[in-house]
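Before surveying the methods themselves, it helps to consider a single example record, giving the amino acid sequence and C-alpha cells:
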Amino acid sequence: MARIRLALLVALSFAWQPRAASAATIILVRHAERISAMSADALLSPAGEERARQLSVVLKDAQVQRIYVTEVRRTQQTAAPIAERLHLKPIVIAKDDVDALLRQLRKSGANETVLVVGHADTVPLIIKRLGAGSAPALRDDEYDRLTVVFLAKGGKAQAVTLRYGTVGP
C-alpha cells in the first residue's frame, strides 16, 4: 500500500510539471543510510543499499538525463542503482563546491530532468539557492526526503517535497 501511495505521489508531482512547461526538473535527495556516523566517508548500510534500490524504482520513469553526486562514496552508492538502470555515468562535483553544482543545474535545459544526491547540509542549501524557498534542515536520521524543484527559464523555481522508501520518524 505504501509503495502504491508513493508511486501516486511521484506521478502527481511529475504531472504537475506541464504548468512549468519550459522548466528543468531537479530531483534532490540526501544519500541513503550510512553504516557508521563516525567515518567521514562511511559506506551505505544494508538499509541504505535498500533505500538506493527503492530510489531507482521510484525514479525509473522520471526520464532522468543526468546525475550529480559528490566525491563521498555514499552519494555514489545511492545513485548507483538508478545510474545502472538508466545507463548513466554520475557526474562528481566536490561536496564543498555547491557553486559549481548550481552553475551546472542552472544550465539544465527546458524539460530536462536531473538527479542530485547530496548531503544533509547541502540539499536544503541547494534548494534555497535555486530560489525554491527555504527547506527545513535534514535531521541526522532523515533519509527519505525527496524534493523536486521545477526551475523555469529566468530562474523562477517551485518545489514539491515527497517521501520515498521506508519513511523515517
